[in-house]
Amino acid sequence: MRGTGEVLTEKLNRFLYLGPIREIPSRNYQPVSTQNRQNWANGLAAWDTLYLRDQKFLKKVNHWLGEEKLKTGYALKMKVYKEVDLESPIIAILERGAELDDIEILKSYMEKLPNKKRLFI
Question: How many other CB atoms sit within 10 Å of the CB of residue 45?
């Protein structure tokens, strides 16, 4: 059986400090995949959480930001995209005008590119 002090200590350790001055992430901010409790103090852990969670979680957050709850007029949107280097073969194909034979080459090249995500307000 655990004592009151142990239970209280466990509960207090779950608290996260949110500092009064929050850091605004840069446009190209990439979150860290491992949560650091210290990042809650400057607010960046909230961005990490929003970025790393699924669309279901974003819907819940948007529900609270929207017209029925907080009425902020803001919403979060996660965009998934691929980044193409301007010197890549795909750009050369597109610049000269892709032909039917090029479609398979374009598809295979695009499939190899990693998906990237960006969170927008």
Answer: 19
Backbone angles phi, psi at 77, to 5 degrees: -140, 130
Give me the pLDDT at residue 61, please: 94
State residue 74's pLDDT score. Answer: 93
**Rounded Cα distance, 29 and 59, in Å:** 21
Q: How far apart are CA 120 and CA 47, in angstroms?
A: 11
With beta carbons less than 8 A apart as the criterion, state whether 45 and 35 touch.
Answer: yes
pTM over 0.90: no
List 119's β-bridge partners, or say none.
78
